[in-house]
Amino acid sequence: MRSCERRFGGGLAVAISSIFALGLVWPAEASSFDEAMETREAGNTASQQSQVAIDKLADETDTLLTQYRNVLNQLDAVRVFNKHMRGLIREQEAEKTSLTEQIDGVELVARQMTPHMLKMIDSLERFVELDVPFLKDERTERVASLRAAMNRSDVTDAEKYRAIMEAYQVENEFGRTIEDYQAEADINGEMRELDFLRIGRIALLYRSPDGTLLGAWDQKNREWVELDRSYEEPIKAGLRMARKQSAPALLLAPIPAAEDAN
Questions:
Q1: Which of 67, 70, 217, 239 counts the most CB atoms within 10 A of its CB?
Q2: Residue pLDDT, tens place only, 206-218
């Protein structure tokens, strides 16, 4: 037993000493380990924070890049728009120049047209005075209205010219139509109410309502001449046709002025 104690006593002492020795070393190693873990955890936390910062910067970079691309797209659109607008401005300037030239031309034409229109009215007035004297009051009044219109500032030159051309057209139509009308005329120094028959411009005949007076206008001598009773029926037939009381037919009407012209 003692030999065993001697045999194991030294080993036991060594083991116990080792244990104590280990017991003395553990606290120091544990502390270093904890510090290492804390350092690692701190490093992980710092890494996570860095990653968050990096992700944030990446998002901001993407946002800025998107904004930059949008600005570039807008800039391209503005350039295209400006190019288009410059083209429109050039066209408008050209049109403005053209309109200015046209306005100047219109003013020149207007200055030239006014004397021309006055001459046309003078010619029309003279024509009415020298023509066969049918509807004399109506035609004279038409010419007077044209002169009055020429002095009105609220009537455009185009309207004035159109009215003059319409008056010429009316006069032109008289040469191709037949009509009757009632009016007074000086017959042998006495004003008489008569029925007139106009056949174009080749004949202007009259008949009193009671049929006692028959006559025609002598254009050559510019006077009224009496007709004998043989002309009453042709004149009456012509009046009926002019009034659309009978169908158009061949009319054998007296034309004294035409005979004199031959």
A1: 217
A2: 999 998 999 999 9
10-44 burial by CB neighbour count: b if 16+ within 10 A, else e? eeeeeeeeeeeeeeeeeeeeeeeeeeeeeeeeeee
CB 227 within 8 A of CB 216: yes
Kindly state the DSSP code that residue 230 receives in the 8-state scheme: G
Give residue limits of the domains in the chain.
Answer: 178-262
Measured distance CA(72)–CA(75) in Å, rounded: 5
Q: Report if pTM > 0.70.
A: no
How many CB atoms neighbour CB 238 within 10 A? 23
φ, ψ at 45 (rounded to 5°): -60, -45
Report how far Cα 220 is from the mean position of its chain's Cα atoms: 55
Backbone angles phi, psi at 127, to 5 degrees: -65, -45
Q: Nearest CA to 133 among 217, 237, 229, 239?
A: 217
**pLDDT for 227-250, tens place per residue?**
989 899 999 999 999 999 988 878
